[in-house]
Amino acid sequence: MPSPPAGTEKQAVAFDYALRLSDGIASSDPLWQARLAQLQFGNLSQRDALRACELLNASYCPVSELATGRFFVTFYNPASRLSWHSARLPVTGRYYRVLDEAGAPVTSQTIPVNNGTLRVPERNLSIAVNELAFFVASIPPLGYAVYSVEPCNSTDPGASVFTPILPTTNAGRSASEISVGLAFYIGMRGNSSGEQFRPSGAYVFRPTTDRPQTLSARIQAQVIGPVVNETHFNYNDWAYLVTRQYPGASSNYLEAESTVGPLPLDDGVGREVVAVYSADGLSASSGEFLVDSNGRQLMRARRDPSRPEAAQFRPANAIVSVADAARQLTVLTDRAAAASSRPAEGQLSVMLHRVTLDDDGFGVGEALRERGSDGRGLVVKTSHWYFLAEPAASADRYRLLASQRHRSP
């Protein structure tokens, strides 16, 4: 599930673009396999044994899932500085031993695949029921680190800790003072016969109200373990959210992973779903927020109450942030998205998924109604990193995290 490029086009064009990207990636496999085999083994005889896990964000990797004994995981660092990585591999068992390059045991944790991920149709061939999480502490610049993983018994030294997803009634706000939730706008219907009849569509975001409808979680659950703590929110059949808090070197951020879709269409309503971030006591009353310019710099944006809701959003390729005199809330996206300091002062909204029922009349000639790989409707899986810090310290932190995020091993 690679992140889609920004832009709007007919569905057939999007399919063709995805096919070309896939063909390009596949054609490059022999190159990196040969180079990595030469570096690791000193010859090319082992290159066919190297495989890439291209659907890890859908929790699907045939190598880790089908392995019955020890296998090796290579983490390549594309950045020109030392890097780290919070690894997560789909597996079929509960207990594994992870060893670093020196043969030392690495703390690891197995977690059941959550219900949101299970909805992703791209993993329909997966047999994994758990995910193995561990921290890769150091990967050299433009280099790699190799870790070994093998199944074991729960009583073996260095065995991973199995942490089930347990229902809870106290899975709300974390100690970070930041809360995350999901909400949605209802898109305007129309036939584009005039501006007053312009519907929400592929080019046009035109919600019926100035405030989104907040979703309430039906089920809340949590995972507590040595590698990661998680809070799970199951809103309905099409919205699932997991927030994660990591210890150690990566503890200077939190993660929100949302799985949205297929969005319902049987009620004749188009939905446009956002993630809403709130920080306790953040009182940014100027209406000003920051978005990045293609990852190179931050630009100031200001909400204008005299303009409609759609005009309050700006394109954010990597970062969106809002601050008061004492604290700054920052969200790092994994793809280009619309973002705003909405629906209230000091909050941030980031668009996750859109489905509209009418063509907006600006050239695409069809509604934004993607069918997905199984024809039931598109499922979008998104990961955001976020943190709260003093404004003076935020810039250094988001620069390092943005580099880590977009040059991830």
Automatic annotation (TrEMBL):
Residues 106-149 form the Lysosomal alpha-mannosidase-like central domain. Gene3D superfamilies: Golgi alpha-mannosidase II, Golgi alpha-mannosidase II, domain 4. Signal peptide: none annotated. Residues 199-361 form the Glycosyl hydrolase family 38 C-terminal domain. Pfam families: Glyco_hydro_38C (PF07748), Laman-like_dom (PF21260). SUPFAM superfamilies: Galactose mutarotase-like (SSF74650). It comes from the Eukaryota. GO terms for biological process: mannose metabolic process. One of its GO terms (cellular component) is lysosome. GO terms for molecular function: alpha-mannosidase activity; carbohydrate binding. InterPro entries: Gal_mutarotase_sf_dom, Glyco_hydro_38_C, Glyco_hydro_b, Glycosyl_Hydrlase_38, Man2a1-like_dom. PANTHER family: ALPHA-MANNOSIDASE, LYSOSOMAL ALPHA-MANNOSIDASE. This is Glyco_hydro_38C domain-containing protein. It comes from Macrostomum lignano.
